[in-house]
Every structure is written in structure tokens, then in C-alpha cells.
Amino acid sequence: MKLRVEVWRQAGPDTEGHFETHEVDGLEPHLSVLEMLDALNEQLIDAGQEPVAFESDCREGICGACGITVDGQVHGPEDNLPACHQRLVGLNDGATIHLEPLRSACFPVVRDLIVDRSGLDELIRAGGYVSISAGTAPDADALPITEQVAETALDFAACIGCGACVAACPNGSAHLFAGAKLAHLSMLPIPADEREQRARSMIRVTDEIFGPCSYYGECARACPAKVPLAAVAAVNHERMLAGLRRKL
Fold first, then answer.
1. Which of 66, 90, 107, 199 could be a cystine partner for 115, CB 3.0 to 4.6 Å?
2. One domain, residues 102 and 169
3. pTM of the predicted protein model
4. Where is the signal peptide (predicted)?
5. What is the largest CA-CA distance in the chain?
6. Is 180 helix (H, G, I), strand (E, B) or coil?
7. Crossing angle for the helix pair 231-247 and 175-186, nearest 10 degrees?
8. Do 242 and 161 fall into the same domain?
């Protein structure tokens, strides 16, 4: 299979970017988008040219590093799959594939397909953790949690921090990401002790860095971890509860 690859090239955050066109031959339909980029980079290196900069790590869909935009879709045309699991099987021989970085004002381009997603790190630093000392490991039944609560908390905790939700949202909102963190930590006994402080800190950073939620739901369709859309409601829910507690 031969593909015509239009890929975004940008030397740095302060330079203008442009698309470069290359032809890559010898591809197999089962290859992922990242493996196709590997083949392109081998071709560029052999020709003495600069390879395309992009991020990846596990390539198993669990690290969140590989976020790019493929043919105008965050990660690629298949819903709820990271770029490392998007395959070439849907493309015909000689087709054109369009690759660019995640597009959001909150994610400035660092180089080529790599963007700065440190805004998500700021959210985690604001409260996406548990700082309470739990002492030694308690017995399994010391803090009883129903199976339904545990499963729901795990659904929200599945987020891999890829930033697809922000790039897919017309407003650049991080409500799915922030809401997933707020929801799963508020449902568990020990993290819930910091619920009010966590909500205030994380929502403040969310409002400062990212846009408001558009309520269109693009975030859930792009999310590789299939975080429930209900996570976006957790942001305003936790905001309201924190406000009520402050008044009390």
C-alpha cells in the first residue's frame, strides 16, 4: 500500500508551521498511524532529512502520549481509540492521510506533532491527588464500598490524560478530564475527606486555563478510555457543593 502523507511541520512554538507532503510505500493495512509515521521517519532519515517529531510511549492505548489529529479527527476516524490503535485498514491504496497536532489554544505546538499539554498537569497539581495519610494498609473490609460505587469510580478513573477531550471540544474545555478526577475521588471514603478543597482548587485552574464546557459531547466520542460523559456534570456538581459548604 502506498499513501500520500500530508504532515504538519513546525520547528518551534515561535515559528510558523506548514504541511509537507510525502509518499510512503510498502505499508500494510494492519499498521497503526504511528507505525506509518515510523516508516515515514525511516524514509526521511535515509534521505538525510529531519524526521517528524511526535510523541508515543506504550503504544498499547494506556499512556495517553500519542495524541495527534488524523484527517481532522482527534486521534483518528474511529471513536474511542488512541492514535496508536488507529489502523490504516480503512484507507485505499494511493489515498491521502492528513496529520497535524492536537488543535487547541490550550495546547501550543512545541514541534511538529508535539504539543504542550502542561495545562492538564496544572489541574492534577491543583488537586488530582490524595494527601491524607492513611497509615498502614487497612483490612479489605475496613472501609466498605459497594460494588456499584467501586465500578463507577473505576470508570471515571480510567482517564489516561491524553488531552483528546480538550482538542475535540469547540471551546477547548477540560471538563471531562477534570470531572473524571473530581468524580472518582469524591466517591471513595479517604479521598472524599479533601473533597471541598479539591473541588475549589481544580475548578479554579479549569476556569483559568481552559474554556467552558460546550455540552456537545465531542469529548466523550474522542476519549480513548471511554470516560462517561456524566463526568462533565461533576464539575458543576462539585462546584455547587463546595459553595454550599463554604456558606454553611
1. 107
2. no
3. 0.92
4. none
5. 68
6. helix
7. 60
8. yes
